């Protein structure tokens, strides 16, 4: 699958198993193959592709896109959407804050995703698109009704009557018990098929799991930052808790915002805010790992070719 790699990627891990995923970057795009079809999210009935496309950068002008959004970038996002579907990747993750004016964006990511889905369905009515979005636990939001109200606003922007996965984007300063209640209400009202959280610590994860369990609703997932160069979920108990409780860990930024693709070098670091994180020195230190990834990819290609051709 060819798709833009500027953060637009996430992976789904079920228990201790990791899907056989290969990605090789080329001029800002990646060729991705998934060896397996779908995975069930936690104890829910929802099944999604093991590789998904994150829409954080779509419409954003505060972190991505060099602080500007234009027609060329719109077409690139649309191309990523269509090419993903063409290659069997149907899981798209967005959030109400992505690209929103509240986050100094140009156009809401949910609005763009909804537009892309509508246009695709006009020429391919049977196309399958699995949508995940997120609730922002903003300080002025309180109680379960704020979750339902925000969800309905998201559905309006998406142009959908329901979404497959609704997540709490982060833990709030207060009101988290009510937010969990809101997730349960959303399931019971048929507005979502499954619910999850994002950026939740082990303690908060367990609390959310137990609270939903009392209503007979599984906590399907916890979406966290997880990659070859960011392994905190293995160290802070989050991944172990997910494995123990049967909660699917969804890894966002598995290619470290493009740093693990080989697209960027010490001579060509990313622009904008990412350039302050992935500096020339950082990328120089990362080079041995990138060389190893490239070597493994080449070996995988040879093995796959031999297996398919008999040579």
From TrEMBL:
Highest taxon of the source?
Answer: Eukaryota
The organism of origin for this protein: Citrus sinensis (Sweet orange)
Task: List the molecular function annotations (GO) for this entry.
Answer: oxidoreductase activity
Domain NADP-dependent oxidoreductase span(s) in chain numbering: 50-308
Q: Which UniProt keywords apply?
A: NADP, Oxidoreductase
Q: What is this protein called?
A: NADP-dependent oxidoreductase domain-containing protein
Q: Name one Pfam family in it.
A: Aldo_ket_red
Q: Which PANTHER family match?
A: AFLATOXIN B1 ALDEHYDE REDUCTASE, OS07G0143000 PROTEIN
The cross-references to InterPro entries, in alphabetical order and at most eight, read:
AKR, Aldo-Keto_reductase, Aldo/ket_reductase_CS, NAD(P)_OxRdtase_dom_sf, NADP_OxRdtase_dom
């Amino acid at each position: 699958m060819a798709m833009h790699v500027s953060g637009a990627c996430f992976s789904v891990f079920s228990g201790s198993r990791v899907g056989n995923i290969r990605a090789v970057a080329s001029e800002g795009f990646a060729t991705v193959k998934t060896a397996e079809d779908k995975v069930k999210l936690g104890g829910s009935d929802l099944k999604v592709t093991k590789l998904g496309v994150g829409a954080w950068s779509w419409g954003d002008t505060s972190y991505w896109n060099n602080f500007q959004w234009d027609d060329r970038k719109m077409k690139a996002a649309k191309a990523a959407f269509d090419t993903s579907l063409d290659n069997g990747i149907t899981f798209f993750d967005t959030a109400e804050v992505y690209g929103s004016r509240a986050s100094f964006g140009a156009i809401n990511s949910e609005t763009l995703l909804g537009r892309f889905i509508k246009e695709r369905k006009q020429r391919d009515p049977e196309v399958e698109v699995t949508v995940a979005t997120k609730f922002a636990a903003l300080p002025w939001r309180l109680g379960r009704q704020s979750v339902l109200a925000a969800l309905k606003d998201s559905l309006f922007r998406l142009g959908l009557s329901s979404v497959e996965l609704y997540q709490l984007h982060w833990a709030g300063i207060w009101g988290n018990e009510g937010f969990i209640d809101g997730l349960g209400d959303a399931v019971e009202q048929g507005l979502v098929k499954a619910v999850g959280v994002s950026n939740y610590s082990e303690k908060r994860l367990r609390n959310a799991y137990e609270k939903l369990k009392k209503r007979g609703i599984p906590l399907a997932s916890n979406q966290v930052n997880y990659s070859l160069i960011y392994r905190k979920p293995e160290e802070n108990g989050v991944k172990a808790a997910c494995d123990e409780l049967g909660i699917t860990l969804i890894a966002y930024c598995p290619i470290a915002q493009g740093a693990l693709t080989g697209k960027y070098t010490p001579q060509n670091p990313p622009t904008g805010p990412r350039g302050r994180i992935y500096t020339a020195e950082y990328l120089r230190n990362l080079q041995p790992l990138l060389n190893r990834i490239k070597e493994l990819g080449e070996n995988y290609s040879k093995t796959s070719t031999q297996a398919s051709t008999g040579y």
